[in-house]
Amino acid sequence: MPDYRVTQGEVEAIIDTDVEDLLPFIAIADALVTDKLTGQGIGTAMLKEITRWLAAHFVAIRDPRVKQDKTAEASATFFLGKEGEGLKATPYGQQVLALDTSGTLANLGKRTASVEAIA
């Protein structure tokens, strides 16, 4: 098994899910954190927490959270962010944004512009 920053148990400690194998979510979270946040001045412990919350975000996208349910009528409302909101789409992703003090993950997917002056 690859050496990821977090374990399945550590992710399960913050998200209740019926998904049995969280390794695909942990793998992508770990790869993203390694690729985007290494060298951004964030300590090892915080990188681990960002990875954990990011993995939970990916799990929540796959297995939406119940935001509200009614027992008498057996209905449920799922917490789903709007498409295109990225990390803002889940409470777990919102926590990632708060933990990433570099602001790097908040800018993922945003277009950059540049201006070049011609003399």
Describe the structure.
By secondary structure, the chain is mostly helical. It has one domain. It contains four helices and two strands, in the order αααββα. The chain has a two-stranded antiparallel sheet. β1 and β2 form a beta hairpin. α2 packs across α3 and α3 runs antiparallel to α4. The longest helix is centred in the middle third of the chain and has 19 residues. The termini are far apart. The mean pLDDT is 86.
Tell me about the largest β-sheet: 2 strands, antiparallel
* Mean pLDDT across all amino acids: 86
Tell me the helix content.
Answer: 40-55%
Q: How are the strands of the biggest sheet laid out side by side?
A: 1-2
Range of strand content: 5-15%
H/I helix tally: 4
Number of domains: 1
What shape does the CA trace take?
Answer: globular
Strand and helix order: HHHEEH
What class would the helix/strand composition place it in?
Answer: mainly alpha
Secondary structure tally: strands: 2
Radius of gyration: 17 Å
Q: Cα distance, first to last residue? A: 57 Å
Q: Low-confidence parts, pLDDT < 50 over ≥5 residues?
A: none
